[in-house]
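Batch manifest line 276
LIGAND: FE2/S2 (inorganic) cluster
JOB: complex structure
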Amino acid sequence: MHKCDCNPLVPDIVEVIEIVEETPDVKTFNVKSEKGVPFDVMPGQLAMLSLVPVGEAMFSVSWQEEKEYLQFAIKRVGLMTDELHKIDVGQQLGIRGPYGNGFPVEECKGKDMLFIGGGIGLAPLRSFIKYCFKHRQDYGKIQILYGSRSYADLCFKEELFEKWPGQKDTEVFVTIDNPEEGWDGHVGFVPSYLEEINPDPAGKIAVTCGPPIMIKFVLQALEKMGYTDEQVITTLEMRMKCGIGKCGRCNIGSEYICLDGPVFNLAQLKKLPPEW
Ligand code: FES
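JOB STATUS: finished
ARTIFACT:
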């Protein structure tokens, strides 16, 4: 089926070609259309997935593999995602996008990058992390700090423990909230681990995504360490429905998350009503 150019709400069709169980409640879905990727996506951009007859929902694209397929890491949090977790390889989905501004990959060139993620918040960050590795010469040192409730709840374990730590000029810090048998890594919450690591703000951009409570304390920790509001970036993926600035569901003050976001730096966010 071909997308109707006259109606941006009509989806393309993609087929699920692989499903990876990341955690007990997160699965990664690789999807492709007849032509490979249905559209090109930049890190941090979003797409609307639909499953007939359940409905549709907006998700961040966790990676575009060349022109071959798109990846979505999706956590089970409600009706639509519960149903998505039941589908098998071969299932057809509707897709429309890409939506949103994405991460400022150009502006960050030449900077050291600090990624701070919690839980499923690593999914959008991963698109930027993988982009930095793909364009390694354009970015300085890369530090990745990621935490989840338990070892089982850590997403993308192969990349976290095997692929990323071996990359040039890269440090990966992983933590879980509580001690557990067999885990000899760091234990504690992401914001306090961040304070322990105490990464120097000079020449650095910090990009964070995770549960709101984690973000709140990460932002406080970064401020304490001397990061300016312009050096701190986050992504908001709230309440989106149409994705094209029509339904009014996603606005904060005068900004529409689907058009002006979902990526903002802290200086921009502080100008908005405190609804984020
Ligand atoms: S999702 Fe409809 S206006 Fe943003």
